[in-house]
């Protein structure tokens, strides 16, 4: 690498950054003592063999001491808040036993896993009702990446993630394992899940009070479920696996002293080559892995990670052994399969803002298939954000696959978009061209990953048809079935049920 390649730009339309929104809530440091960054434990398998691994994942309620005073009521997986880090190995068959110990229906969606849908994928068609369980089984066939688990019941995805139903998962493969990269989990390889919350009376969260159809924001940064966190640096190089787990917020990351860092991976794979940069923007659901070299600091120094002007995480430098090993120049060969000539470009538009959000002019319907696509065929997808400038940046996400970014408005993609991705930020007025293919069958959603936008209807679903089983039928649920369950579980009549996304349909006069 040479210095000319250092990226010193956030790469997106500044006029569309979230801080221009009239409802924007700036981040501020909480009036609370600093705390060690929580490192989610690795989830222990119930059983593991050379070919198979068995996990139990329980969605549960809990309470966490986030601020001085009262504990905050939270939700989590196998713990009170967020989740334990799940390890998946390429080639392994995974068996998961889900338990719902929450008071209401939820689903368990693996964001970033290329596994069949809609049941294994765990979107809105795979509910687990309170007190009930579900078992799924799938095989991992994909490159090393940092993916995540989150709730996805429509239209209450946003509210359940806000309660805490989100956790990281690491896909490991043999290629990545052989590269000289930090991977001592919790020491020089740490997840950094970026979220924001507003604390109300008695330190509680209040989703409905904070609701905004363009996405809920809170002033307090919460990193891995920690307020005012610090991390003790004991190695010269530290690998940070960032996940934007916020409902709405964009994170514009940079370090004190404009310390350069090296991005090595995006959402679903390593990058073709490491990229030196000083600024990194992540929109909702995007991931990035970076390596920070603290070699120019001494014990007692502190390095601060910021988003815009707000400190998020303090790195306290301790003694470490010098590590001047260079990173490899080549990290990954991004697949580049040929487009099937018989497949015309498929167009998707991300439309509107506030309650008017839609995709291709329509709001999402759980029992409607919007598109059919043959398995293994590669197709160009043109994703357009039809917002007029200044508008908003919409992070576009696809379930069940990783795609290759071909072009932004006819220009080369940003250099850190050259690996496999599952979520891509689209500027207002922009067309982003993707190469899309599916290697697993099923029904999959694709949507804006501002969680209130997806609940509000900026979402659609496709059916991937396996040529070996072209007539396979999928039992699709509808919104009303889930909403009746929510009404019953919340002990309110259906006409008094409030779920954020329902507002967006009602206000636009649309049936669910
Ligand atoms: Cu959006």
Automatic annotation (TrEMBL):
<dbReference type="InterPro" id="IPR002355">
    <property type="entry name" value="Cu_oxidase_Cu_BS"/>
</dbReference>
<keyword id="KW-0479">Metal-binding</keyword>
<keyword id="KW-0560">Oxidoreductase</keyword>
<dbReference type="InterPro" id="IPR033138">
    <property type="entry name" value="Cu_oxidase_CS"/>
</dbReference>
<comment type="similarity">
    <text>Belongs to the multicopper oxidase family.</text>
</comment>
<feature type="domain" description="Plastocyanin-like">
    <location>
        <begin position="340"/>
        <end position="466"/>
    </location>
</feature>
<feature type="domain" description="Plastocyanin-like">
    <location>
        <begin position="60"/>
        <end position="175"/>
    </location>
</feature>
<dbReference type="InterPro" id="IPR011706">
    <property type="entry name" value="Cu-oxidase_C"/>
</dbReference>
<dbReference type="GO" id="GO:0005507">
    <property type="term" value="F:copper ion binding"/>
</dbReference>
<dbReference type="InterPro" id="IPR008972">
    <property type="entry name" value="Cupredoxin"/>
</dbReference>
<dbReference type="Pfam" id="PF07731">
    <property type="entry name" value="Cu-oxidase_2"/>
</dbReference>
<dbReference type="GO" id="GO:0016491">
    <property type="term" value="F:oxidoreductase activity"/>
</dbReference>
<dbReference type="InterPro" id="IPR045087">
    <property type="entry name" value="Cu-oxidase_fam"/>
</dbReference>
<protein>
    <submittedName>
        <fullName>Multicopper oxidase</fullName>
    </submittedName>
</protein>
<dbReference type="InterPro" id="IPR011707">
    <property type="entry name" value="Cu-oxidase-like_N"/>
</dbReference>
<dbReference type="Pfam" id="PF07732">
    <property type="entry name" value="Cu-oxidase_3"/>
</dbReference>
